[in-house]
């Protein structure tokens, strides 16, 4: 209550399902109670690939595709925004990747509750699925695949989900910067630590300063802007070495403005 402007972004669809189950209530009721308690935004994690064939292989203990869909839909209808994610580059087919993005679009058409799509490439180290991949001579997605997924997601989600994140901690800074010319319009957060990516073989670091983000975005020919969890413009909280950014209109996809 002392900081009413702070946006509470917490929990995953799987965690809400578990909490609702042990509390003897429906997911819909749980969402209403969470909204009343102050939850502003739910994470879109535990989606992985929205295919039960894939989920039985990579995450058999997690909620099903339909449970994930029902949970985020219930969140949206309760007035709770969510992001959406896709973790790709393991056992899924290209068709299953596309089906996942089309599923996100269908939900968005019904609810309008997604703030963004976050594509995340699978890191194959120190986990059973990845060890099998490496033993067969297969690694994770290529950089070209990463950019292709961002680009086709922009086409599929056009006018539906406006924001697509190029996750620097998965892609690396330079590829994430290039992704801003391929359909992405967000680099994610500055972070402080990312134990999951690090444990799975990620080696791109765990922190990027706001000033470096600004440098990366300008270097990609884009205009940097700080935003909050719900993609509302936020006032910069770090010194601007070059003075305030010029007044500008929103750049269109593919624009160099």
Can you give a write-up of this model?
Helix 5 (94-111) links the parallel strand 3 and strand 4 (114-121). Strands 1-2-3-4 form a four-stranded parallel beta sheet, with helices on one face. 36% of the residues are buried. The longest helix is centred in the middle third of the chain and has 18 residues, at 94-111. Helix 2 (27-37) packs across helix 4. The chain has one domain (9-219): TIM Barrel, CATH 3.20.20. Mean pLDDT is 88; it is low at 241-257. It has eleven helices and four strands, in the order βααβααβαβαααααα. The chain is of the alpha/beta class and 257 residues long.
Keywords summarizing the entry:
about 260 residues; alpha/beta; TIM Barrel; four-stranded parallel β-sheet
Summarize the structure.
With 257 residues, the protein is an alpha/beta fold. Helix content is 42%, strand content 8%.
Number of domains: 1
Oligomer: single chain
Strand fraction band? 5-15%
Radius of gyration: 19 Å
Summed up, the helix count is 11
Distance between the termini: 40 Å
Proportion of helical residues = 40-55%
Shape from CA axes? Answer: globular
Spans with pLDDT under 50 lasting ≥5 residues? 241-257
CATH class: Alpha Beta
Classify the fold: give the CATH topology. TIM Barrel
**Sheet having the most strands:** 4 strands, parallel
Q: Main sheet: which strands, in order across? A: 1-2-3-4
Strands, total number: 4
